[in-house]
Amino acid sequence: MGKSKTLVTLGADNKAYMGICSGKDGKYIVTVTFDNIDFDVLVDLSKPDAIEKSAVVGQKENYPAKMSINLLHSLLAARTFTELGKLDQLLTWEKAKSLAVV
Fold first, then answer.
1. Any domain includes 102
2. pTM score of the predicted model
3. Of the N and C termini of the chain, which has fewer Cβ atoms inside 10 Å?
């Protein structure tokens, strides 16, 4: 991954894709859409229900702490998506309303 920021987009077909974003802090945000309208976001439910400021792809924004995912879970999600074209059911996904919190 990039030294200061990374944005990776993986496509499964014409409408389905996964986006993986990160910043310098080693935190990743992973989103998936199958129709380019509704999005699922990978979450870590062991994290507090708090808001944290993260620099994702160079921009500092407020995000729910549970959306900050480690590299291993990001890679597991990416592998399942690229190999099978679906969400990894061993990971926890939530429907995304809006990623950044104002």
1. no
2. 0.85
3. C
Return phi, psi of residue 65, to 5°.
-55, -35
Q: Assess if residue 70 is contained within a domain.
A: yes
Given the DSSP bridges, would you call strands 39-43 and 92-96 parallel, antiparallel or unpaired? antiparallel
Amino acid at the residue 26 = G
Amino acid at 4: S
Residue 67 structure tokens: 């959306």
In the chain, how many domains are there?
1
Residues (pLDDT < 70) of the chain are: 1-5, 57-58, 98-102
Closest CA to 93 of 55, 101, 73, 82: 73
Residues 8, 22: Cα–Cα separation, whole Å: 9
